[in-house]
Amino acid sequence: MNVLTTFLNALPGNVSQGLIWGILAIGVFITYKILDFPDLTVDGSIGTGGAVAVMLITNDCPIWLALLCAFAAGCLAGLVTGLLNTALGIPGILAGILTQLALYSVNLDIMGQSNRPVSVDKYPLVLSSRYAVPAMIKSMLIVAVIIAILYWFFGTEYGFTIRATGCNSNMARAQGISTKKSTVIALILSNGLVGLSGGLLSQYQGFADVNMGRGAIVIGLAAVIIGEVLGSVIFRKRFNFVAKLAFAAIGAIIYFLVLQLVMLLGLSSSNNKLFSAIVVIIFLAVPYLRNSSKTSFKKAAKNAAAVKGDVNNA
Amino acid sequence: MLELINIKKTFNLGTINEKKALDGVSIKLDEGDFVTIIGGNGAGKSTTLNAVAGVWPTDSGSIIIGGNNITGLPEHRRAKFIGRVFQDPMTGTAATMEIQENLALAARRGNPRGLRWGITKKEREEYHEQLKMLDLGLEDRMSSKVGLLSGGQRQALTLLMATLKKPEILLLDEHTAALDPKTAAKVLELSDKIIAEHNLTAMMVTHNMSDAIKHGNRLIMMNEGRIIYDVKGEEKKKLTVDILLKKFEEVSGKALSNDRMLFSKETD
Ligand SMILES: Nc1ncnc2c1ncn2[C@@H]1O[C@H](COP(=O)(O)OP(=O)(O)O)[C@@H](O)[C@H]1O
Ligand SMILES: [Mg+2]
User: Is the overall model pTM greater than 0.95, yes or no?
Assistant: First the structure.
């Protein structure tokens, strides 16, 4: 009972956190699912967004402008990864890792130290963990607006080029699409959202930290995959684009709720990265194992007629 | 229309895998020419088409389409002149996008793309009409994902996409080879129809000699990266598979020992 009431009390906070990370998850959805590009820039660009937002806010910049700059800083990070990949031919995963690593230093430079507080008492922050219910409502609105904008964008000619590039780059080029350009644009957009997510997260938690992005990509992936599994169970064939975006964010909420639950049940907070890794492993492995249980050599051996000299069951 | 002047291409230059794939290919197509291309495995047929499409830069020679020298243009920038259907039905379409979305992408080939809608209501109606002409019932499944279509349906759709905006040149690279014989015949018939209807200039690679004879107004034979035989008009009409086989031996100095070709000879 005690666990349950604590869980319910923490619900708005966890939902807010889930929604803020949901923005990052939507960014990851764009690269991982739409563009088919495993972008690891995320671990760096979320911190960049957080650092930029906090430094601007603490220097009395209007909040909306600070968030816009967090978005823009994320965009820049995406641009770098995109250019490393398309202009310099560095493989996608490595391009992201390089940018992410470089951003660690950049984020330190932006903040001048490894951690910068931003107090809700001093600055008119959009949201704060201190006021969990308003934070939840506001983050919900922000996510809704982002989904609406992306729904529009991916319905435009530009959006089509990104989808085609991710699905079949040969086809895209044959249709006159510069796949390099659409790759860069998608990375910019994705990391812009991740930067925005960082800007909101630092306000929510009251500080930006140079380590705030460690493992962010795994949380993002967890959210995307949880959302996908859940969404396709609920919607089946009618799991359309808007629902997919929404479920990336919902996946993030579920992730934080489950995390909260296992922590209440005794997982120490130092183990939460272990938790993220295990969640992703489970969600990636289950569909694979289920598939291979349908058709496997073991099964083939079992279904094979017994023949003399059978090595199958020897 | 299309002119190739002394095109050369060597792959993996300077490595143990060095391969001279095109050794001075020159050809000039007239408007409305429908050229079938035959030749043994590795003769350079696909490479010729890929050179035109700009899959990679050529080593030397010029490619001219409709008076434009496009030799220096990357693939996506010359796409506006070119319609393509590939051997693998998976290559020509985006599986995770809808039939109508694929068509909308094709309709914008060569146009600058911006923040206008990727597909409009008016387009949907047009595509509905055009899909009807394929006679595959696709017009009733316009919002289905292309991944749900069969290979033959995908090739027919790719063909429609390639010609939705009239290309200066249509490139068909063994586009029926991966289909079962019945479907292959249907897609081939459809290709003929579309080419005739729009008076397209086209190049079609095939490993089936009787198809190569039956279709088009001109036939070229390739061997070791060169065009070794080029025939058109009345002379082409008189061709038979035996004449082609003899011709090949005569020009190349060896028998055409291509399994697929012999096979297709026997079955037709
Ligand atoms: N992208 C490539 N890289 C390396 N070698 C290639 C490439 N494309 C074609 N080749 C080689 O060039 C030669 C001609 O190939 P191709 O034009 O595909 O023959 P085909 O006439 O059967 O279509 C072959 O030896 C092939 O292996
Ligand atoms: Mg070939």
Answer: no
